[in-house]
Amino acid sequence: MNIVSNSDSDKGLDVKIIIFLLGLALSSTAFAGNTRYITDQLEITLRSGESTKHQILRMLRSGTAVEVLETNAESGYSRVRTPGGMEGWVITRYLENIPSARQRLAETEKKLAKLQASNRQFNQNVSSLSKEKGSLNSQIKKLSQENKKLGQELTSIKKTSASALALDNENKALKIKLRKLEADYQLSQQENAVLKDRTARDWFMVGAGVILLGIGIGLVIPKIRWRKKSNWSSL
After folding, report:
1. CA 152/CA 132 separation, integer angstroms
2. C-alpha distances in angstroms, 119 versus 131, 133, 218?
3. At CA 24, angle to CA 65 and CA 59, rounded to 5?
4. Where are the domains of the chain?
5. Which of 31, 72, 99, 166 is the most exposed place for a label (fewest CB within 10 A)?
6. How confident is the model over 50-83, as pLDDT tens digits?
7. String of b and e for 61-88 (b: at least 16 CB within 10 Å)?
8. Distance CA 166, CA 84 (A)
């Protein structure tokens, strides 16, 4: 029983290895020309060839972005180009499709810090806007009260203006009546002056007539007496 189990396990392992190798062979062309990232290791070696016997060109830190030029599934190495333009070979299993967890964490922390700063600024803006809103509400309330007061004053002014207008109209009417009375008084004065002149002239005429009458009587009476005497003497 143990022998059978070991045989089955070996077969299963062989199948996994074959599947793994097939997967590497199929993905070897897909990796070419794509960007990969050094896995979360401290550093890996960039060599001049596809084995540990080849010269180390430089050490690549975790999170370094490299361009995959080709992949050899049999050797387990990939030829890459660094951001500085250096080409060499690295172990394929150290390459990942996404940046390292440490790099992602650092970028996430930066984004989080930026978001927190933005959030603080947003809260400050909200607080400032709330204060401004409160100030504006107070100003609006004050302006409303002033507007109401001005409306009342305007109503009072309108009433006063109406009364003043009525008084002005009455004053104008009284002035017209006064001017008419003055004209009538002046006319009366003129008529009175004319009457005075006419009365004086009449009295003058009457006086002259009386004087003339007296003179005539004075002249006639002596003649009458002389005639009477003459008549008496003849008798």
Report:
1. 30
2. 18, 20, 142
3. 30
4. 2-99
5. 166
6. 998 999 999 988 878 899 999 999 999 999 999 9
7. ebbbebbbbebebeeebbbbebeeeeeb
8. 98
CB 158 within 8 A of CB 166: no
Residues 37, 65 contacting (CB under 8 angstroms): yes
Within 8 A by CB and 6+ apart from 76, the residues are: 24, 91, 92, 93
Tokens of 70: 């080709």
Fold of the domain built from segment(s) 2-99: SH3 type barrels. (2.30.30)
Residue 30: band (very low, low, confident or very high) from pLDDT cuts 50, 70, 90: very low
How many CA atoms are closer than 13 Å to the CA of 42, on its beta-carbon side? 0
pTM of the entire predicted model: 0.34
Other Cβ atoms less than 10 A from the Cβ of 38: the count is 24
Amino acid (one-letter) located at 36: R
pLDDT in the model for residue 235: 55
Residues in the chain: 235
* 203-206, long-range: CB < 8 A, 24+ apart: none
Burial of 92 by CB count in 10 Å (0-12 exposed, 13-18 middle, 19+ buried)?
Answer: buried
- Show Cβ contacts of residue 36 under 8 Å, excluding neighbours closer than 6 positions: 65, 66, 67, 68, 78, 80, 95, 96, 97
Residues 6+ apart with CB under 8 A from 42: 61, 62
Rounded to the nearest 10°, the torsion over CA 104, 107, 109, 110 is 180
